[in-house]
Amino acid sequence: MQIWVDADACPNTVKEILFRAATRTGVVLTLVANHFLRTPPSPLIRAQQVEGGFDVADDFIVEQCAAGDLVVTADIPLAASVMKKGGHALNPRGEFYTDDNIRERVAMRNFMDQMRASGVQTGGPPALNDRDKKKFANALDSFLARHRN
Q1: Helix, strand, coil: what percent of the chain each, to 5?
Q2: pLDDT at 122
Q3: Which H or E run includes 25?
Q4: What residues form DSSP beta bridges with 32?
Q5: Beta carbons within 8 Å of 15's beta carbon, 6+ residues apart
Q6: What are the beta bridge partners of residue 29?
Q7: What is the pLDDT of residue 110?
Q8: What is the DSSP string of 116-129?
Q9: CA separation for the pair 54, 8 (Å, rounded)
Q10: DSSP structure class, residue 96
């Protein structure tokens, strides 16, 4: 089991939680982005830079991840693709994507895309707060306790 991170938009505080978890548990962590990433020196923590372009990092993650792997992402289509491969997807707010909630989130994402395309300013999600960070850390720890080899 490995952890993959859609690192282009992943908050730094979430990356720090992931760095500590990889070191503590011995699980390999790979951050994927289309720009250079600075990571702590560790044989368990890797940074993979991919070419720029729409969904290049997402496509790389889907291609490389295996059933049972964990992918950290806020990207709903990426989460859906990972789940189709038998992987697990966790967003930076500590919520796992499930078969039940992914359909709802895809529908909401498509609706918001339509709103933005028609000129409505929808804004982005609120900034991560301390409760979100704690929820993420707890969800990650619980997952790793259940799925580590």
Answers
A1: 45, 15, 40
A2: 66
A3: helix 12-25
A4: 6, 48
A5: 5, 7, 31
A6: 3, 45
A7: 66
A8: HHTT-----PPPP-
A9: 12
A10: B
Angular region, 45: left φ>0, alpha ψ -120 to 50, beta rest: beta
pLDDT tens, residue by residue, 35-51? 999 999 999 999 999 99
* Widest Cα–Cα separation across the chain: 49
Strands (E), 2-149: 2-6, 28-33, 45-49, 70-72, 88-90
Question: Tokens 């720029």 sit at which residue?
Answer: 52
- Residue 72 has φ and ψ, to the nearest 5°, of -100, 115
What is the three-class DSSP state of 33? strand
CA–CA dist 46, 5 (Å, integer) = 10
Residue 55 half-sphere exposure, CB side, CA atoms within 13 Å? 9
Give Cα 96 to chain centroid, integer Å: 10
Whole-structure pTM value = 0.88
